[in-house]
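ASSEMBLY PREDICTION REQUEST
Request ID: AP-0331
Submitted by: J.K., bench scientist
Number of chains: three
Total residues: 691
Priority: normal
Notes: Please return the full assembly, not individual chains.
Input sequences:
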Amino acid sequence: MLENFSFRTIVEYLPLFGHGLLATLWLSVVSFAGALAVGIILCAMNLQRSRLSKVPAKIYIDAIRATPLLAQLYFLYFGLPRLGVVLPELVVGILALSLNSGAYIAEIIRAGILSISRGQVEAGIASGMTYTQRMRFVVLPQAFRVTIPPLLGQAIVLVKDSALLSLISVSELTRAGQLLASDRFMPAEGFITTAACYLVLYYGLKGLAALSGRWLGVQSVRSGA
Amino acid sequence: MIEFRGVNKWFGALHVLKDITLSVEPREVVVVCGPSGSGKSTLIRCVNGLESTRDGVLVVDGHRVGDPTTDMTELRAEIGFVFQSFNLYPHKTALENVTLAPIHVRKIARSAAEEAGRELLARVGLADKFNAYPSELSGGQQQRVAIARCLCMRPKIMLFDEPTSALDPEMISEVLDVMVSVAEEGMTMMVVTHEMGFARRVAQRVVFMDAGAIVESGTPEEFFSNPRTDRSRAFLGKILRH
Amino acid sequence: MIWQQFQSLIGSYPLALRGLGMTVALSLISLVLGTLIGFALGILRTGGNQLISRVIGAWVDLIRGTPFLVQIFLIFFILPELGIELDAFTAGIIALSNLAACFICEIVAAGIRAVPTGQVEAALASGLSRWQRMRQVVLPQAMRMSLPPLVGQYVLLIKDSSVVSAIGLTDLTRVGWLVVQRVPNGLLVFAIVGIGYFVVCYPLILLARRLESRMGAAHGEVQL
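STATUS: Completed
Returned structure:
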């Protein structure tokens, strides 16, 4: 039973969890930046007319969405050495998270761009703007606002997904919990503390999402139609 | 200024413009009317290339529309287009909406563009709304911003696609007044509208369309007092009843 | 070398089949349980009782705020400490069903909230009971809204089932992990594992897209 739940051991291991929290935080930030880059490139490819650029992007996005992150992670972890590429576990993990989230972000951005009404584009065309000018001044600034909330949602998913990196021995939050569980045979202490740390990150991001929602709500965007 | 010669257009199997021949002279105001689905909006959307035509010739300001050698973005800068649904940019203030194209398409200095923009917004009666976002404006106010947005490009031609049909009745006249003043300054205008009062006041010509073809064309006096075809009589009967 | 690997891979196909079977079994059982519990929770969440609604909301937040891997570890390692003996399979089912139920609860609740109040008022006015209103008027309309995200959620569930390999269940991912110890070609092994998931998930993704576009079209009709 849990009557001998040991807060003392948790306190003892607190520095480890602190490290784990920071590691999860910064590797998530790096992965999210990478995912944004992957997503923007994929989305740009997907919005082209040429099938040569569209089809590979679509295949990539579907392949990522129809397979589990863990299988993708193992694919890179066990597969890259096969190609002679030997990378530290941490780098493999960040790579996997970026490549995975990038596919979802590509779809978020695409939905944002497609949500801009035809009339907005036509107004740009009618005033003599080029494609680039329309994108830059009319479409993207509006799409940006629409995509902020789902992007934050994806950030939450990414932070939680990063727990899988513990399975290839990256030292982060979940790994800290596993260490406490196996060193002291105290899984309850280990994983409850881990969960609590994730909840801190979760509520932080959720708060941010609410804040951005309010900020975007103030400059309420209503299309003229 | 605008010349259609035998222009046809299909949407799939639907023949939406049938052998249109029409010319609009400089400083002329032409009102296009007709029942919904008659092709009148499609007609003026062809003028600045929002719709493409399949055969026939369409010359605007000396350039052939749809010709590969015609730089459409340059031509469009000379043509103002006012939409039924305003299409103001919701993320930009009234003044920013007005100055965006002058700054980036005409490459006018920001300060000069803003000065011109303020002047035009004041002219359409919105001197106190420079920094308002579209969502903070009424429909009538939004449409006046849209007209100022076109005027700020110093266009040679202005096209209006049912500019008052999305408006509440009490806001229609404020928009029409602005359009009348633009017409009286000698702007070349093509206006798709059912506002027959506007046609009487400023149009030199009324063109009546039905089922994709121009059925009748004449001065407002002729058209209203003595419509020549059954279809135009039926149409006038419907819109003048209320 | 490659040929040998292939032979060795082909030799492990019974294991692969077992893994695929395990993945399908886990997903299917949790899908059914998760859907039933999720609908019940979703209806309770919008049922008007503040306390129940808050408690469910808090639980959903806890589950949504923590990684699934951590949830599995908690269930697998802590329930026995509370005197509940369970094997890895049961632990996996509990974890997956709970996860699915929480997400489905939110989907169903959102669908119910999206039904216009006029509909409920019309049902009230015609004298339908509380349950009749739910069953005849609200749920059918809510279902139309909820169906595409629900199917999307099933895809997530199948993919999440891969995480139970961490507590030693021999599912598709675990089979890949076992095989790659003998056949050191991670690209090949996990490409095959990926194809296994793809075959199950992709049809569901296509279905979700179709439902979504059909719903979009239906919306268009209403707007006209």
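REVIEWER COMMENTS: The radius of gyration of chain B is 18 Å.
SIGN-OFF: pending second reviewer
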